[in-house]
Amino acid sequence: MRTGSEPATARSALRMRLWLGLWGLAWTAAGTAGFALAGYPGWAALCGALLLIVIVDLVVVIRHIRQGPHYQPGRDIPPYEPVHDERPPHRRGSDNP
Length: 97
Prior knowledge:
The protein is an all-alpha fold and 97 residues long. The chain has helices at 14-38, 41-67. α1 (14-38) runs antiparallel to α2 (41-67). The longest helix is centred in the middle third of the chain and has 27 residues, at 41-67.
């Protein structure tokens, strides 16, 4: 929900996520290979699972970077009105559900 208090120059940290993902890719690939060669199949499988998660994250990050910036409303667009619930707020300890 847009509240109107967003920074005017907010930027996504996708490039940082990309570099951290590449760092994680290197470490999980090295861990998978190292544990497999050392004879620890459980640890190798764990590092392999983390490697798959890192690869999926990198694919998502690269896709978002390639999509480019999306439309953001400008300063002249007022914030959305909050949704008002017709029910009164529930109080703790009351017998009313």
